[in-house]
Structures are given as structure tokens and as C-alpha cells.
Write a structure and sequence with these properties.
This protein is an alpha+beta fold. The chain is built from four helices and seven strands, in the order βαββββαββαα.
Amino acid sequence: MANATENEGPKRRLIFTYGTLKRGFPNHNLTKDLIDNNDAVFLGNYSTQFSFPLIIGPYGVPYLINLPGSGRRVRGEVYAVSDRGLIRLDELEGTTVGHYDRLPVLVVGNDGDTVGIAAECYFAGRGVWEGLWSGKDGEELAEYTAREALKYVRKDQRSKRRPRI
């Protein structure tokens, strides 16, 4: 696993991805394009240092809810992303309309690291997740997997299909 501070020059931010942007998942084509254009570097597999609820919403969209201490420690990937790359990620995640908020999160390596590394993550916007999660233990995930991805409907297909929860 690469050191999280490696390749992190002044124009790169560490981004923790937990859902469709991960390798092998529906929106990884964007992440791959950023890598191919030197706007992102894969640093490794990480988990959140603290627990958060990870839920699946309408259209199979994964949402991480910014309620530390609830849910589970979430597994994902960390990328060092340029400012230009962040603009593209923010656009996909709908940060200007409140769909997701890019906020700080501490992550640890999946190889047993215990020291948290500061990164940023796309958390569900407050108006988005309210009503999707009841707060009951056990309904949240520790990882977005291929099983959940089967329910995902791409943005350009959503007006043609009903949401699947």
C-alpha cells in the first residue's frame, strides 16, 4: 500500500471513496480518467477511523452519513486528487446542489495502521439522507460491494427507471 502522504504535493487532496468511484464499480471510469490524466493517484485501501452509517438509497446510490460513532467503520479507497480532478468529482457528486458535501474524515490503512490520516469524503447532504436512515443498528453497511452495485442506476438512466431501494 502506498504511503498516503506520497504523491500528495501542494495541489493534491486525499479523497476517501467508498462507493461507485472505487475500482470495479459503476463510476470508476471517472476515477480512471483522472488517473490517466494525472489528476489522481490511487494510494490504497483504507477504512474510516470512526464508524459512520453507510446506506443504500434510491437508485442503489450509496450514502455515507456524517454521524460519527453511528454505523460501522467503512472500507474504501484513498486517492490523491488534483484541484482539476476535484472539480470533476464535485460535479459528479452534486456538491453545488447539496446532494453530497465534501467534508474531512480520518482514515486508517487496512494493513493495521492505527494513526488516522486526514482525508476528505463525500457525505450525503443533510436533506438527502434524512428519511433514508432510521438510525437502527444493523441496517448500515461496512462496505459497498458488487451486491449493492447491482442495484445502482446511472444518473443518465434515472429518469427512465423507478428507484430501487
